[in-house]
Design brief:
single chain, 152 residues, mainly alpha, two-stranded antiparallel sheet, 2 strands
């Protein structure tokens, strides 16, 4: 099972729509925007621009996207279940919907398919930790709400 908990067997399109609205609200809200700004700053300050999947922070100190903030705040992640979005969200002060969405994009979104030379099949190619960092940094930037105020 993935950390995000997302599945393909959702038979209720209204429930899916409600969920997407909750995710959007969590990201665009005050707490979500504050977290994204902190995350962007922490990611930019990383000496090695690489992200891992499936763990907040591993034994070597490598981080997933949310783990970057945990590390910058000095949060003891040994007490946080990385597979439980409620726990992860609570640890960093964001809604579990937002935690779940970030876990999904961090862990499950970074791959492509390439045709195998000389064969009639495709193979899944995982991204590198550096590519994951770049993709997630762009994801964060794309979700930061730009100021609506214009200079006079």
């Amino acid at each position: 099972m993935s950390r995000s908990g997302y599945t393909d067997d959702n038979d209720d399109p209204l429930a899916r729509g409600r969920w997407r609205a909750q995710v959007k609200s969590a990201i665009r809200g005050k707490r979500g925007q504050s977290f994204l700004q902190e995350l962007a700053t922490a990611m930019d300050a990383m000496p090695v621009k690489e992200l891992i999947a499936n763990h907040l922070i591993d034994a070597e100190g490598a981080c997933c996207t949310i783990g970057v903030v945990c590390k910058s705040r000095g949060i003891d992640v040994s007490k946080v279940d990385p597979h439980e979005p409620w726990d992860v969200g609570r640890a960093v002060g964001i809604a579990h919907q937002m935690a779940q969405e970030i876990e999904y994009y961090n862990d499950e979104y970074g791959y492509s398919f390439e045709k195998v030379k000389g064969k009639n099949r495709w193979e899944r190619v995982e991204e590198t930790p550096e590519q994951r960092w770049q993709r997630m940094r762009e994801w964060v930037s794309d979700r930061l709400v730009k100021s609506l105020e214009e200079p006079c």
